Amino acid sequence: MRKRIDYKWIVLSVTTIGALMASIDSTIVILALPQMMEKLHADLVHMIWVIMAYILVSTVLLLTFGRIADMFGRVRLYNLGFVVFTVGSGLCGLSQTANHLILARLVQGAGAALMMVNSPAIITEVFPPHERGRALGINGITWAIGGIVGPLLGGLILSVASWRWIFYINVPIGIAGSVWGYLVLKETTARKRGESFDPVGAVMFSLGLIALLFALTMGIQLSWTSPAILSLFGLFALMLILFLVWERRAARPVLDLSLFGNRVYSFSVLAAMLQSLAMFAMNFLIVFYLQAVRGYDPLTAALLLIPLSIVSAVVGPLSGLLADHIGARLPATAGLLAQAASLLWFIFKLTPSTPYGTIVIGLVLVGVGGGLFWSPNTSAAMNGAPRERLGIASATLATLRQTGMVTSFALALAVAAASLPKEVMMKLFIGTSVSLGSGPMQAFVVGIHHAFIVSVALCAIAATLSLVRGKEDRRVAHRTAQQG
Q: Is residue 35 exposed (0-12), middle (13-18) or buried (19+ Cβ within 10 Å)?
């Protein structure tokens, strides 16, 4: 008689399909920007918003969706996210104008937010603490695999077919994932009666975060000191203050501030935000370097980063398994220190003529650090949250991580804008090959060094938080393992 597959592994298979689809999509879209701009008769601003519409919606809605998931069911909302993302992908492929494409990307972003916020929560629900690190590590492999498959698949599609197929390819995968999720996933936490939603808090939070993201992404184009950008930063600060005051008094807050009373959870979340802030810019700046300084085309530049993804894919599950046995504190801290070391390597070694082999050493260090950090840190954060608040706990972690990524992205553009002519920087952003003279090349590399110095400091702070977060309660894991 064939042995029945444990339900938790079925859950992992469904959530992994969703993560893989989202990770591949993000890489492919960037490669296709020049062709989309040409075929849709769009300008650079439209192409920027093809990227930013997705990031904006997928970040802003996380907290709201996390709270709703705790109220109405995480599986229901995860399955809905699969459907919405698939529909959004089809609409992207059908778009006839740049504005249509931007609107379709908003739909895609909403679907991604529904999947992103519920995937870690569902995995945490079904895996006991002593196995969560391994499960989250396996789930996290998909983002590394997406970094490998995305450029290869994107290059293949764009060489033989229209840009529309980079979106159409999501449709059959999304349909399969939606059906699979509907058939096999089931709610494991009963819905509580009397739960209510906090619309005022959700609106305050969304307005504040939208203002911040607009300020960060438009600051390069309009100037950081322009009245519009300063007003957006002011609106963000005002909404943040009002939101925190309101949430302390709300009967059913959209953000459960009591989560931060758990030191392991709060320090894990802050470490994740700082790591994203430090390292996301690194990827963009190295890609800019490979294109603008070394003269590689966008596809080749993306392929040259593959060693990072390969190493991360190998180390991620192993670090999760290690964290299941010894806790997250040591592997996660070691990962942050490895990434700080990678940045120092680039600061001392990166020049306009650095051999690719030297660059690979830095990329491998980044991959090792990311693999060591992410799954143990996520496992620690989710272990520190109460079961009935896993949705909002996952949403808070994802929101701060995404905000760190967007801020880091703005930093990368700011460095490029300060070191390169504006028209060159904008061409690089949408993946157009450009060439620079020796003077601009050297100035850009010096700008990268300055950005990486800041990132080293951020990694050091994150490593300190990771080290002093405290130990997870291994007794809980042991009891759960015995019951399982």
A: middle
Mean of pLDDT over the chain: 83
| Other CB atoms within 10 A of residue 199 CB | 10
Instruction: Name, in order, each residue with C-beta under 8 angstroms of 353's C-beta and a sequence gap of 6 or more.
Output: none
Q: Which of 58, 6, 19, 3 is nearest to 398 (CA)?
A: 58
Whether residue 418 has pLDDT greater than 80: no
Q: C-alpha angle with apex 21: 110 to 317, nearest 5 degrees?
A: 115
**pLDDT > 90? residue 110:** yes
CB 135 within 8 A of CB 123: yes
Neighbours of 353 (CB within 10 A): 9
The answer to whether 323 and 380 have CB atoms below 8 angstroms apart is yes
**Is the CB of residue 138 less than 8 Å from the CB of residue 16?**
yes
Q: Which residue has the tokens 């062709």?
A: 35
Which of 245, 231, 204 shows the shortest CA–CA distance to 63? 204
User: Residue range 279-303: average pLDDT?
Assistant: 82
Residues 6+ apart with CB under 8 A from 77: 65, 68, 69, 114, 117, 118
Tokens for 194? Answer: 């009397």
Mean pLDDT of 303-314: 87
**Residue 320 is encoded by which pair of tokens?**
């999760």
Instruction: Return the number of other C-beta atoms located less than 10 Å from residue 423's C-beta.
Output: 10
Q: How far is CA 448 from CA 340, 370, 420, in A?
A: 15, 20, 12
In this structure, are residues 466 and 267 in contact, taking their beta carbons and an 8 Å threshold?
A: yes
Task: Report how far residue 148's alpha carbon sits from residue 125's, in angstroms, rounded to the nearest whole number.
Answer: 30
Q: Take residue 261 and report the two structure tokens written for it.
A: 């009373």
Statement: residue 189 has pLDDT above 80: no
Does residue 480 have a pLDDT over 80?
no
CA distance linking residue 305 with residue 76, whole number of Å: 36
Cα distance between residue 170 and residue 187, in whole Å:
26
* pLDDT tens per residue, range 228-263: 899 999 999 999 999 888 888 877 787 778 888 888
5, 235, 26: which is closest to 143 by C-alpha? 26
User: Which tokens is 227 given?
Assistant: 């009245």
How many whole angstroms separate alpha carbon 232 and alpha carbon 404?
18
User: In angstroms, how far is the first alpha carbon of the chain from the final one?
Assistant: 22
Listed residue (112, 93, 118, 119) closest to 104, CA to CA: 93
428 three-class SS: helix
